Amino acid sequence: MSTAFLYDGAEDARATILLAHGAGAPMDSASMAAAAKALAGAGFRVARFEFGYMAARRTERARKPPPRAETLNPEYRAVVEQLGAKGPLVIGGKSMGGRVASMVADDLLAQGKIAGLLCLGYPFHPPAKPEQLRTRHLATLQTPTLIVQGTRDEFGTREEVEGYALSERIELLWLEDGDHDLKPRKTISGFSAADHLKTMAEKVAAWADALSR
């Protein structure tokens, strides 16, 4: 099955970032579009795509629920092949999309197909279910990884995540008062969504530059 991509940024950018969507929102959701625009503004070529179940929602009346994340691993690998990125490739995504990417990252790294992993709002656990952790594979992850997380993300707050056993290859960028979409409450935090997107993009640029050294 051929995958449709949404692109932002120049074709000759220093690196390509491949982003998958979260469980319930498509690749052109407001949060994904804003993140892609910010990353493109920081000098990246950004490619967004949809898993088959989400793409099907555009043409079918029946709203298919998201499958178990691990069942999407083969599909993510196939999309990497189809993309055929020239130059360094960072894979990742929003929420579930980043989780799926994290499960295939080490294999792709070992094959020389990717340079790193970027997760925007990693779903460390389901909301209100902190005991159902999705972190086992993150303890031994070998891929250079950047997780961008809001401090009040209901899928993993700063206080919760700081107690997890995570690989030393994982770097975390905390955005003050950010929710699962990285958005802060301006009246409380003093930051705007645009502020956090700018901080995110600048950090990703510096992190990606370090990967190539």
Distance between the termini: 36 Å
The number of helices is: 7
Write down how many β-strands occur, each being a DSSP E stretch of 2 or more residues: 7
* Structural class by SSE content: alpha/beta
CATH class: Alpha Beta
Share of residues in helices: 25-40%
Average per-residue pLDDT, rounded, comes to 96
Order of helices and strands: EEHEHHEHEEHEHH
CATH architectural grouping: 3-Layer(aba) Sandwich
Model description:
- The protein has 213 residues and is of the alpha/beta class.
- The protein is globular and about 45 Å long.
- Helix 3 (73-83) packs across helix 4.
- The model has no long low-confidence stretch (mean pLDDT 96).
- Strand 6 (145-150), helix 5 and strand 7 form a beta-alpha-beta unit.
- The longest helix is centred in the C-terminal third of the chain and has 19 residues, at 193-211.
- Strands 1-3-2-4-5-6-7 form a 7-stranded mixed β-sheet, sandwiched between helices.
- The protein has one domain (6-211): Alpha/Beta hydrolase fold, catalytic domain (Rossmann fold).
- It has 7 helices and 7 strands.
Write the layout of secondary structure elements.
Layout: E1 6-8, E2 16-20, H1 30-41, E3 45-49, H2 52-56, H3 73-83, E4 89-94, H4 96-110, E5 116-120, E6 145-150, H5 158-161, E7 170-175, H6 186-189, H7 193-211
Helix pairs in contact: 1-7, 3-4
